[in-house]
Give the backbone structure.
Amino acid sequence: MSWKTGVVLLVLAAGLGGFYVYDTYWMAPAREKAESVKGRLWEVDPKDVEGVTLARKGEAAVKLKRAGDGWEMLEPVKARADRGAVDGVVSTVVTARVDREIDPSPTKLADYGLEPPEAEITVEVKGRKDPLVLRLGAKSPTGAWVYGREGTKPALLALSEIVSRDAAKPVPELRDKTVLAFDRKSVSGFDLEIAGDAISVEAQDGGKWRITRPAPYAGDGDVVAEFLDKLETAKVKEFVGAAATPAQHGLDRPSKVTIWQGKDKDRASRALLIGKVDAEKKGVYVMRPGGSEVLLAPEELWTAVPKTVATLRDKVVLAYAYDKVKRVEVESPKGTVALERDGVGWKLVSPEPLKADSGAVNGLLWRVRDLRSIGFIADDAAGVARYLGKPEVTVRVVEDGAKEPKTLLLAPSKETRGGQPAAVAAVAGQASVALVDGKALQDLAKTSDDLRDKSLFPAFELADVKRARLASAGKQVVVERKGDSEWKLVEPANAAKDGTKEGKVTDLLLTVKGLRWKDIVSAKGDDAARFGLDKPQAEVALLKADGSEVGTLLIGRDEGALTYVRLKSGPVIYAVDAKLLTDLRKAPADIAG
């Protein structure tokens, strides 16, 4: 190929590339724009509309003006407009397409509902001196179209009836229905005036709240969050209008909510007056201070308003950091128990050193953590001395790095809540005395037996077991691990060729691993015959690869819902739930394939 041919090809390639770029980045968007406005009444972008007036026959005109990123209603009432609803009307009107021209110069406009028109829409567009006008008349016989005329042009047009529908939206549908507009994230406090009582709450660091009036208390974050969320999202159910008298809607002596936003010199407030509840309409009447219009808000809004200091107070009785707890002590009529962390688990250190049941200890700690006040009966040191001078249950929680334990005091109370007994509770060194669920006295009065580890077998992993020997009802089988999950039946020898049900062996090991005793019936193993352990009914032995025992369980007789058992390595006789041993007794027959 000659250099001249190369130059020609290069020029052609550059030209094609330039045309592609031009077509892609200039021509294509232009074609798309032209296609999008094809058949439209006006070539207007909805975002350029600055104002809309809807004049409907027999009604006051609705005048709307763009305000920032939303809309404001100027007539027939001055109020915030619903941005979504107005944007919808604007988009429908300015992007309306003409289906067809019915008559270029009609003489009987009344036949089409256009003398006078049903509605006249005036649209003010940025950059245009004169507004756009569309008059709408009656619908076509099929109801799919509406007759209209553009501005001063004589032609009779057919447009989608959606234009007529949007132009006829009632005023309430175009109004912003937010009961009280505020930014939840910027709330720095709020005031409540209810039935003559004044309550003030201030935001604290870390998302916490503190009551500052009538007295300083920690606030209940959940109650505050629910109240603010309900208030922020509350929507007007009905625009009632001006009341003949404030008393008509309970607004002569209203409750008042004041929301504070921002801090220091930037702090500003929004307020709402709350009147009486209308049970039939499931709402509550409200009004904005300085206004004259009564609104009907959802009844749930009033329900969410905290009406007393007790409702707003933090109901957590004793707060602590679980991951920092290193010691727990419990004193009750059942005795004294002390526990300490032992790695990732727990151990009993008093009344005797024993391994503890981590699940039971965590249950105790969670019960303390979840203890909630159902009422407050005193807020001074004298009240603590009066009600909890002699506590029935004391729980001390010691956190790592703390100089003193956090001490929970509990005692019975004569009070009831919801027909159920209550108890009194306080934290040592704090002044508040709270009423709590009376069950806490029983739930927290734990003994060593309640908290000790009740595992029958020494701790082991399934992979530790190399061989298992099972005997019951005169039959014995021995299985041996081959690989990670495969098991081989080695006794009886004549059944070995039939294989083994591996799933049954795994189930057996999990059952043994999970066995827990309910009671110690003989610590020294006295009178084994009484418990059927002089001649056990069944035996389960687990062996390691080196032949040493993981453990051997001897199963004695049943008594009601209990079965007596012991480990071959020790004298203690235990009572366990008989249902847990059913599969172990059937294991020799079940495991053989």
The chain has a mean pLDDT of 90. DSSP finds 13 helices and 35 strands in the chain. Residues 306 and 312 are 6 Å apart (CA to CA).
